[in-house]
What we know:
Helices cover 40% and strands 15% of the residues. By secondary structure, the chain is of the alpha/beta class.
Amino acid sequence: MNLFNNRVNLVLSGGGVKGIAYIGAFGVAERIGYKWGNIAGVSAGALAGSFAAAGYSTEELKNIMNEFDMQQLEINEIPGKVSAVSRYMRFANEYRSTGAGSLLHFLCKGQAEIRDRSRTAELSSYRGNILKNAVTYSKEGCLYDGDYLEEWVDKVLAGRGIQTFGDLRGGMADKANPNGYKVRMTAVDATRAKTVVLPDDIAFYGINPDGLRVSKAVRMSTSVPFAFKPVELKKQEQGVSQTFHIVDGGVFDNFPFWLIDNSEEIQTAGFRLDGGGISNIISFDTPLNILKGLISAVHDLGIPKDVYFKGVVANIDTSMVSFLDFNLTDAEKKYLYSSGEKSAIMLFSNIRQRKSLLRKLIMTSFFKR
């Protein structure tokens, strides 16, 4: 390991609008003098990671986020826009059942929840059923226009001369990232119930990974069921056309650390947006809480991975803000920035301590020879 290397790999979790906290974390790295190595992200982490890979400074990112038109939505509009919410309200009334369990029962269409995660075949069927229904409901109606997000990301990245992943070559090629992309992200192919790595796995759909627009990949990685419509990819094979529906990568895994080489040649910093999830929802008696519950219910459905993450992880406290709070106040934005800064200060302190300890061990070993 190069102990004097100021490069740090980066892993960013999903978390909706709470991802603004990453700007605070980036600011700390900027002040200390760290440069990003390879970046991996999902959903909000994919969005932030793409901007970081483009080389935007913290102040520039703050201005960019302030210029983004956060689409506000009245709570009363939700049942009309999101069919899954109105359907669940009828379901709950018919079965006189509410709560997290009833949300899963609704999404499974009566299939029993699988609690023993070692029963792989049944778990796969369970996840597939949830995904199928989530896609169906999301196609019927969702909160926001994914086109707007994609166009905005495209415009922001164009400010740094970036359009496709071919423009983001120049990262560190290794066994986890053989093509050396500066940033990669995950999405879920709901049709195949499979995690896809972008841009690498886009080749399956007949698209050159270098030619994939980064904004399109970000849109796929952030296509949260019920909030955005799934992205449709069509594949022609032997004269037959098949349509695949792509949704948010956090559906299967909200912290894709496995996208980064765990050889520890370079230190890895991981940030997770913590708090404000389904456990914080007291009841499902409003359309907004039902929507939040539905979104939470379809996340982290993947089979837990037994690969140990060798980096340093910081949980950023975002419990005071919901992942759907797109109309944030200035005070809430400052809270997120501050939370990101506090977590980053602790994380980079831990990284420096690890490097210092390794130096001492190496020197001690050297002088004992």
